[in-house]
Structure formats: C-alpha cells, structure tokens
Amino acid sequence: MAPCWKRVNYFLGYLRIQQTTGKRFVSEIASRASPSGKNSAFSRLTAEDVSYLKDVVSSRCVVEEKEALEPFNTDWMRKYRGTSSLVLKPNSTEQVSQILQYCNNKKLAVVPQGGNTGLVGGSVPVFDEIILNLSNMNRIRNFDEKSGIVTCEGGIVLEALSNFVSERGYTFPLDLGAKGSCQIGGNLATNAGGTRFLRYGSLHGSTLGLEVVLANGKVLHMLSTLRKDNTGYHIPHIFIGSEGTLGVITAASICCPKKCRSVHTALLGVDSFDKVTELLVRCKDEVGEILSAFEFMDRNAVELATSLLSHVRDPFPKSFPFYVLIETAGSNEKHDEEKLEKFLENCYSEDFISDAVLAQDQSQMNQLWTLRESMPEAVSRSGKSIFKYDLSIPLEHFYGLVTEMRSRLAQHACHVVSWGHIGDCNLHLNISSSEEAYESLSKLIEPYVYEWTRAHGGSISAEHGIGRMKSKYLPISKDKSTLELMKQMKQLLDPVGILNPYKVFSQEA
Amino acid sequence: MAPCWKRVNYFLGYLRIQQTTGKRFVSEIASRASPSGKNSAFSRLTAEDVSYLKDVVSSRCVVEEKEALEPFNTDWMRKYRGTSSLVLKPNSTEQVSQILQYCNNKKLAVVPQGGNTGLVGGSVPVFDEIILNLSNMNRIRNFDEKSGIVTCEGGIVLEALSNFVSERGYTFPLDLGAKGSCQIGGNLATNAGGTRFLRYGSLHGSTLGLEVVLANGKVLHMLSTLRKDNTGYHIPHIFIGSEGTLGVITAASICCPKKCRSVHTALLGVDSFDKVTELLVRCKDEVGEILSAFEFMDRNAVELATSLLSHVRDPFPKSFPFYVLIETAGSNEKHDEEKLEKFLENCYSEDFISDAVLAQDQSQMNQLWTLRESMPEAVSRSGKSIFKYDLSIPLEHFYGLVTEMRSRLAQHACHVVSWGHIGDCNLHLNISSSEEAYESLSKLIEPYVYEWTRAHGGSISAEHGIGRMKSKYLPISKDKSTLELMKQMKQLLDPVGILNPYKVFSQEA
Predict the structure, then answer these.
(1) Which of A233, A392, A488 sits opposite B486 (nearest CB)?
(2) CB contacts, 8 Å: A458 with chain B
C-alpha cells in the first residue's frame, strides 16, 4: 500500500490521484490574430524553389499536403495560424545552411520551428513563410560522463534530452511543462525559464556553446564544451532569446549538474500573500542550497483545477488563499529531510503556514506536481476566451496585479487566476471567460496589464518571449537606444530579413 | 588558544601562519611588449581637447602629471606600459557619455580602465590613448534586501561590493585574488571567473542588467533587476567579456545568493593526478550542493610558495605530488560537517587521498586560502622572467601540459609550476626563470603552449581574456565566420574604433 501523506500538523489519509498524461491540450478559441500586411519584398515560392529545396533535404523530409501542414501552421493554443505550403525537415547543419543560403538569395521568408509549443505565436508563419522544422536534427553528439557536459542537436525533445542525462547521473538544468514536445533549440531561442530556473539559473549560465546557421547560410562553429572560455566576444548569447530572428540554432553544448539522489516535495497552505513572500525569504535562508523549486498558486487557480479536472485533487481538507509547492534536491536523504521538516515545523509554529503535506513517495510527488502543472489545462477548459500573461513582477507588487484585475473585471463573469515561479518573481496571470465576452474584456485588460507591469518595475515577458503577441509592446520594455541597437543587430545578421519576419519587432515600431 | 587542525587520519599541532596582507605585488621584469605601429587615423590630443574634457569632469578628476600618470599607464605585472598624458575620472554616466561623444567626434582613442589588475595588458594604453578611469563611479545605487539584487556603478571595488552584500546576508557570486583592487565594471568587461565560479557560475548567469555607454556617447539603459526578462535581445551579454572594446560598463545589476552560515575548508594531499580528477567527480557527487571551491596546486607550486614566502606553510608533515583545497558552504553546520567528514573518510579509506586537514576556525581557513592565494606572489619572486598562462583544458588532458612543459624545458633552469580552479578545468601554468633565459625559453614556450591547448580541446584564455597579450592567437580560438562576426560587431558598435584599440583583435589578424 502506498504511504500516507506526511503532514506537519496532522496526518491525512492517502489520496488516490491519477497522474497527468503528458498529452498536449489545445484550447478551442478561434484564431483572432489579425496581422498587418505581408512584406512585399519577399518572393512568392515557385515550383522551381520547391524542387531545389526538396533536393536539399530529400522528398521524405518535406511536408506539402494541406492537411499535414495544419499542425505546423498552427500554434498549440490555436491562436495563431499561418498559410505556409512547405515544411522542410533538414537532417544536418549542412542542409540548414544550404536552405538558408538559397532562401536568402531568393528572398524567401523562413520560420524556424522547434516543438511549436511557444505561447506568443513565435514559431508559426504569419503568412506563407517556409517552415524550417528542426525535429529531424535530434541527435546527441557527445556526452562527457565526468563533467556532465552534453552536446546535442537543436531538434532534440527536451524530455528525451533530460532523460538521457538523467540516466547517466546528471540533471538537465531546464524543465518545463511542455517538455514532452518542446525542443532544446527552441528553448534556447526563447531563453526558456521553467521550474528549475530557481536552482540552476538561466540558459545564459548553463550554455557553453552553440552552433548557429546565419540567414546567409554561414555556419558559426561555437560549440565550446569548456566551462570557462574568454577568447573573444561571447557571441552565442546574442542568439539565446533572439526567437529565431537572428540565426538558427542547430546544436548546443550545455553543462548539467550532478543529479541529486534525494528529492522531497511539499505543498503548503498559506493564508496571506505577505506570508508567501516571507516564506520565500526564509526558505532560501533555511533550506538554502537544496531548494530546487518554489512554486505559487492562488486559491482560485487551485479551485478551477480541482473542479474541472477529475485527476487533480487538493490534498488539504479545506482550502487556503494561497498554495506554495516546495521541492528540495540534495545529496543526503537524511539531511534534506531534517532541513525541510525543521523549516516546515518552524513556519507552522510561527504561523507562516496554515497547513502542509510532505510527499512520501514518487507517486505523491507526482500528485503534487500534477496540481501545479494542470493549471494551464484547467484554464483552457474554463472558458472560450482566454487571456494568458507571463510577467515578471517584483515581490512587493507581485500579487497586486491579480487583485487589481479582479476588481477591474468585477462586473464581468470571468475567472482571474494566477500561479507561477514566484521564487523567480514570475507570475502567470490567466483570465478566462465566454466567447462573447472577448471583445469587452480585451479592452479592459490590454494594454492595462502591460502598463501596470511596467509601472511597477516588471517585465511584460518573463519567459515566453515577444513573438508576434507582444511585439507592439516591445517599445515600452526597452529604451530607445537599446531598441535601436536591437534593430541594428537584426540588420547586421539578417540584412534581407528572411528569418522569422513579423516577430519581435512590430511592423509599426 | 586557537584549536588544532582537525586531521582525518591523525592530528597535527596548530601552525601559526601570518595572513596575507592583501597588498599587490609587482614583478620586476621590464616591459617586453613591442606593439606594432600606432593607428594614424587617431588624432593627437590638443590643449583644446584637454580643456574641454577637464570641463566635463572638473579639474580634480584629471591626472596629467608625469609621475602621477605612471600607475595608470602601467599594468600590475609591469609588463605593458603606455604613454597616455591624460587620465579622466568621471563621476557620472552623463560625464562618461559626454567624454565618449567628444572623443568619438574628434577621433581620440580611449582606454576604459577599472582596477587595472588584468593580466593580458587590456587595461593600459598601448600608445597615448586617453585613460577613462572608472574609480570615481563607485556608488551602490540600490540593494533589495529580499532578493539580494544589487545595482551598483562600474567603478566599485569588488571587495567593497562583496562586503556590502555580505553585511546584508548575501554572498557576492564572484571572488578572486585581486578583489582588493579590481572593480566590478572591469570584472564584467573581462567576464572574470575566480574561485566561486564552481558554485555560482559565470557572470552571464548572475548579471541581470547593465548600463553601458557606447563609443558615440549613447547610453543603453538596460539595468533590469528582474531574474527573468525575455523582452527582446539579450544585449547586455555582448558587453560581458568584450574587454572594453564595445562599450563602457557604467553600472550593473547582479543577483546575489543568500550567504551560507556554515563554511568549511579542507586541504588534501593526493599522490596522483588521476586521483585528483576522481576526487573531483566524487566530491561533486557526495558533497554536491554545498561544494563552493575545488582548487588544485601541484607540489612544485606549493614548495615554491613555502620556500619563498615566510608567511606560507604547508600544514602537512610531508609533501605530496598534488594538493586540493576544498571549501563547502551551506545552511546547516552539523549537516555540512557530517557530509564533508564522511566524504574525506571515504576517500581516505579508499586511498584516494593520502592526508587531509580540516580547518577548525576562521584563522585556519585563512591559512589554507593563503597557501592557495600566495601562488602568484611566489612565482613572481622566483625569477625575473615569468610566463603566465590561464588555460581551460579538459580534465583528461589537464595535467598533461604541465608534464609536457617540464620535459620540454628540462635542459633549462626554470620553475614549471601549476595551480588552478580545476573544478572548472581552469589551469594556471606558470614558468619562471632568470632574466637572461627569457629569449631562449620564450621560443620554446610560445606558441607551443597555445597550440597544445587547442589541439587538446582547450581554450587559450579561460578567464583573463585576450587583451593585448593573446590577440595574435585569437584566430586559432575562433572559426573564421565567428571572428568575422566579432569584427562586424566591433564595426557596428564602435565604427571609429576609439574604444580600447589594439586589444582583442591583432593588427595583423
């Protein structure tokens, strides 16, 4: 029999909860994107072009049939939809280089595409751009057992890569909900964050080298596998977070930390937001070096998930205004357990937490993570109009925006729920309502959310990027000189502008 | 009375060792740099220029007297010497902007200078470039007690900054021997590594934002204080490690981890290099999350230090071929002690280490670190001709180069010693000899050291940068396309080429 949840104040019977299936969900809202006009400088794809490009990658690595093109043309939220008639799935860096060289010469626009799990419309065409899908470039080129440095191609699925290093005693420093579909090249291109960011930091820190193909087909061989290398400018960082607009990442070297043999997961019920922030500060202090996740959910989000998804349960007998999921990972089971339990006991006795459960086995751990990871699915089922925001907000203002939005939208029937990587000040604010409410809500929400965020020292994109969704708000995020330099960099690296056009920079900006 | 060293196999009486003074040492070798010709495109400084620039910063922030100019014109190894007649010490970003705008218009070359502690001649003029010294810009602009994020000006001395955050319960993620003189702006410009790199990673990971003045005087306001911010290209990273050739870093936001209340230091004697590497792998596995330093020294280096410096002692009764200094930092004294002791006991019983001492108080910790940090001073005292190399070499070849150089130089009277941050594969190879031996040794050492390093998958500059010393070897470190892109970036950001000329790129390259 599976063990009981270990509770800090009292014990609760074991709860049988299904695991998440890991399947993608797709929201049902119709495409509402209305892009401005197509750039007339681009050429229209001819039969001759298709024939040349087919020769480069071989016919079986091409998708042309209308129905088969659909998933490549549509983002996973079904919010953005392009009309590309050609998907190319190159097998090698050389092929990527040949494709881009040809497209650059012929002025054919290209969308680099990984797992197509982005949430800002960055990985699908706006019009008829050729889709350069990296999924066939999914090999691991090298792994060093002593250092944990892995060199792999851009198209490998994050979960496959993560499993590969895990089986060899290392932890991949990046983990996120879409791991079963997203690819490391796309993760790097969007500087993905996720749940392990708190412990292992950003991809700028763990990436040692990249192989990148420029718009003109030139290959930058920068696949260093050294933790320290100060020979010349640190060029790879320009491509991390450039959302496929400056070059195509065909391979990467990433440094993985040793896998921790002891992992503990706890869920905490908290009765005020001030206590949540205080908890974070104390947790970093007392659990310090073993803290590997500190995730936040509000009551509204948890109630939405438990009411709409049969496999999701709240392990507490009563609900709380706020929930915090803590994970620790360390090298010594006994020490880690002692630290975490002591921390929870202290918090409980000092009234920082109202209740807490500590998972007793892998299955209970999965159940707690299921609650946290089911949030996007719950929101998608709660309404036909969904507004998703991925924001960075300083701790002192973090929950203010959620309260503010609830009050602002009080007259409308909608769900305003939030969760996020609060350990990194990353808030995921979600608002859902009926299809009819879209227009009226839309005006009340945007640009208000972005302006509020900027006014409170935050960022309008913590981890999802700018893509197509936020390009018109980029100017409120960057000062004029920095924006100008971004444009100069684009001009330098992709003078014809074939790489992921209409993304990052708005056509009006 | 101070406690005894705690030894894993047996106890040894307390050793009274003076602490390092923290003073800079200066080697006595004469300037041997022989730069190629001055770029005739630059203007010569006129009385009118001096008058204008003096007005910008005020007279008391200018150095013009020959003798007073000397320390600004000379690097700390006294290997490189310029002939600048003007040092400007601006007080604000606005002043830096005005200076650069003027110099750019007038084609006056400028060397940005921090603490001038670099080892590759990057922070002193080659000819008569104006020195833009940042030391007056040493304010802390903001510190967030809850997140540990500090925003400070570029000219603050690393030790002052480190003390500031330490007093507030945080650890500055960068630490290095020159901390008493070097400045954070210079550290960022050279992407400094140091001893904490193993635990806290590179500055690319911990830097959240920069304020940079471009060659034309434009200010890039990129001082984000958010851990996650994916709005647009990650421009600050271009300047990290660009060695003052792309812009002047006037301020930075850096994320500091919580200070660990429990710190332990141990010195290990090891009888083969294979065991050193095995020890590293095991240490990462068993001590894992609390490992904060793993430093290496060979017997020759330790013997040089103990024989030449009266305040340095080897705590062991006999010498060993290799020494490893381990530091742990964690949140729980008892746990950390148990982990480290258990690890050392295991290693000892399995014959991975021959002996070990564990520091029992702060003074003994300092003594162990003194041994490690006295290495550069010992080498400087051991001869008049000194060759210093800062290399990254994969673990399996790490010590091969040292052995190789000893055999190559066997016929010559010289010291070949090595130490380094082996936890990050960073070797500091040092060769010293008499003044007369310089020419003959020089030919045997260079470019051999660099070629060997490249042939074994290493980097010719792990943390010191390229500067003036290694510019002619840059082409062996970067592929042609990447080098070309570096030059295009330089052209884009500093089209007149006034910023730190003759550095990074060789005039021949």
Answers:
(1) A233
(2) 226
